[in-house]
Specification:
CATH class: Alpha Beta
Helix content: 25-40%
Number of helices: 7
CATH superfamily: Spore Coat Polysaccharide Biosynthesis Protein SpsA, Chain A
Distance between the termini: 30 Å
Strand order of the largest sheet: 3-2-1-4-7-5-8
Strand content: 15-25%
Largest sheet: 7 strands, mixed
């Protein structure tokens, strides 16, 4: 099956990005880096390694970056897409773990989990650890799926799920942190074959700011689909 990996970047440490690209398994997947209007010119680093690159000329949000990757994958007739962060938290050498259940067992969607046996968190802040557990509990209540790490952005899924008219990722309200929650909730509620696999999540200890997520404002964006969809406010 034809696999595309998408790395999302926005003002990331370029040395972290360079290390990710060094470790990327070219024999496993193609790669495109999508830049959400960074100020530090990651394109030069990406082109050093000969990978494809797309730049958003205005900052649109992580949801819009993922949409760009999905659109690119559909246009170029890929079968599977892998989404990962460009800040060093995700290890591209783990991509085969995400792909195996899709290719070998016909799963539709695979979620990386730092909380399963074999996964791990390095330097994960205490508050983030609590939020991961609470979020997983909410998914278990709403969907019945035994979620352990539903906000880990390291994921793989078949592009065929976007042929389903009940999954409309192109809505404008999904341009930022809402999209990943929307998509995860939808595949679970619609009965797609979903599996979690253990992966590491590495937080860079030297970084004072470990995430672009802003307290309260972005927390609401992450949670919004879990309110809007069950209540029928959005589809």
């Amino acid at each position: 099956m034809k696999v595309l990996a998408v790395i999302a970047v926005y003002n990331e440490d370029l040395e972290n990005l360079r290390e990710i690209l060094k470790r990327f398994p070219k024999d496993v997947a193609s790669l495109i880096v999508i830049d959400d209007c960074s100020q530090n010119n990651p394109e030069d680093v990406v082109l050093e390694f000969g990978f494809s690159f797309i730049r958003h000329e205005v900052n649109k949000g992580i949801g819009a970056v993922i949409k760009s990757g999905i659109g690119y994958a559909i246009d170029n007739k890929y079968d599977i897409i892998v989404i990962m962060a460009g800040n060093g938290k995700d290890d591209p050498r783990e991509i085969p773990k995400l792909l195996e259940p899709i290719i070998e067992e016909d799963y539709d969607y695979v979620q990386g989990s730092r909380n399963l046996a074999g996964g791990r968190s390095v330097n994960l802040p205490i508050f983030r650890r609590i939020m991961v557990r609470v979020n997983a509990l909410i998914y278990r209540i709403l969907t019945g799926f035994p979620a352990t790490d539903a906000i880990n952005g390291f994921r793989a899924y078949k592009l065929s799920i976007f042929d389903d008219p009940r999954i409309n990722i192109w809505q404008d309200w999904l341009d930022r942190y809402e999209l990943e929650t929307y998509l995860h909730y939808k595949v679970l509620k619609l009965g797609y074959k979903v599996k979690e696999v253990p992966v590491p999540k590495i937080y860079q200890k030297k970084k004072k700011k470990y995430s672009h997520i802003r307290p309260f404002i972005d927390w609401w964006k992450i949670a919004k689909p879990l309110v809007y969809l069950p209540l029928g406010i959005k589809k």
